[in-house]
């Protein structure tokens, strides 16, 4: 069955005075899909999220979220949308728990879900802390929990794991996978190529407001794998990188026969390498 299209963007452009921040963007995101918007600082990621969430008007082109034009977004859409960006809007003087309680009431969500979500983002033991006393990573997780209270159909995440320690980032990834399984469409921005490769069904690489590559991360990397190479580790800690050739095939066969081969990996480029090749720029 064809999955429902949740976000559709057609020829979207944005100018700030004379500066073109977004140039003719085209992409779509379906239910149950994690879509990664990747680009270096200043490439236009936040501007795109702002347009898609009705906080900024585009200069030209069109975009719809849940079938509604972004120019007609009103408060009612927030019942189905979750947004996690820097401007968290937490109630600084309230406890962690009460921050969620206020939103649960507004969104008509049962209170039992609060503890469940706090546990999932690792904040249950901090539920009575005042929000202003939370660390950056904790505040980030509280904003994520808040965005998930009402099981949104679409979730916008600006750099969801920046500043989180690896185990908390891992917990956030698990939560995102679970949401995806339940049918939520997730639009995330990141600088982190490993995160994008692991999480995203599709990615768009953005450079200076222009999408320069688009597709499943693995497919993009394979497309740029013109110079096939293999990395092998042999007994005795000898590590070699070999070209794709008949000679290499014979050599590998020989090592296998003599039980010399410990590991073998293909050396296709990472998304980071692809970005560098396409734009001449690092993705930082
Ligand atoms: N309100 C604004 N007025 C003028 N220019 C703006 C405005 N907002 C963004 N820009 C410009 O648009 C471009 C894209 O900015 P944007 O914040 O979308 O980038 P980004 O990819 O999210 O960067 P980062 O990863 O650093 O958050 C930048 O050149 C920025 O200076």
TrEMBL record:
Gene3D superfamilies to which the protein is assigned, alphabetical: P-loop containing nucleotide triphosphate hydrolases
Cleavable signal peptide: none
Keyword Cell cycle: no
Principal location listed in the UniProt entry: membrane
Protein's cellular compartments: Cell membrane
GO MF annotations, alphabetized: ATP binding; ATP hydrolysis activity
InterPro entries, per database record: AAA+_ATPase (IPR003593), ABC_transporter-like_ATP-bd (IPR003439), ABC_transporter-like_CS (IPR017871), ABC_transporter_ATP-binding (IPR050763), P-loop_NTPase (IPR027417)
Transmembrane segments: none
CDD domains in alphabetical order: ABC_DR_subfamily_A
Segments forming domain ABC transporter: 7-233
Keyword field: ATP-binding, Cell membrane, Membrane, Nucleotide-binding, Translocase, Transport
GO cellular component, one term: plasma membrane
UniProt keyword NAD present: no
Name of the protein in question: ABC transporter ATP-binding protein
Organism, as annotated: Oceanobacillus iheyensis (strain DSM 14371 / CIP 107618 / JCM 11309 / KCTC 3954 / HTE831)
């Amino acid at each position: 069955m064809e999955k429902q299209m949740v976000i559709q963007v057609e020829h979207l452009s944005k100018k700030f005075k004379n500066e073109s921040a977004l140039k003719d963007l085209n992409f779509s995101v379906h239910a149950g899909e994690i879509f990664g918007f990747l680009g270096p600082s200043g490439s236009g990621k936040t501007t795109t999220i702002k347009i898609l969430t009705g906080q900024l008007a585009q200069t030209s082109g069109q975009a719809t979220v849940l079938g509604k034009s972004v120019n007609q977004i009103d408060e009612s859409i927030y019942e189905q949308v979750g947004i996690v960006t820097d401007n968290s809007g937490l109630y600084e003087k309230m406890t962690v728990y009460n921050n969620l309680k206020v939103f649960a009431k507004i969104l008509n969500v049962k209170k039992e879900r609060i503890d469940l979500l706090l546990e999932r983002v690792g904040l249950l033991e901090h539920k009575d802390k005042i929000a202003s006393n939370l660390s950056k990573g904790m505040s980030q997780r509280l904003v994520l929990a808040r965005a998930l209270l009402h099981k949104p159909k679409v979730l916008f995440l600006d750099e969801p794991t920046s500043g989180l320690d690896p185990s908390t980032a891992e917990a956030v990834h698990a939560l995102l996978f679970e949401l995806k399984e339940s049918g939520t469409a997730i639009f995330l921005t990141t600088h982190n190529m490993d995160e994008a490769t692991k999480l995203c069904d599709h990615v768009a690489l953005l450079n200076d407001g222009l999408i320069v590559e688009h597709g499943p991360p693995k497919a993009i990397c394979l497309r740029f794998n013109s110079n096939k190479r293999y990395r092998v580790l042999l007994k005795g800690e000898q590590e070699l990188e070999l070209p794709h050739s008949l000679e290499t095939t014979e050599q590998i066969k020989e090592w296998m026969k003599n039980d010399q081969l410990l590991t073998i990996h293909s050396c296709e480029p990472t998304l980071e390498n692809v970005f560098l090749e396409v734009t001449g720029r690092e993705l930082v």
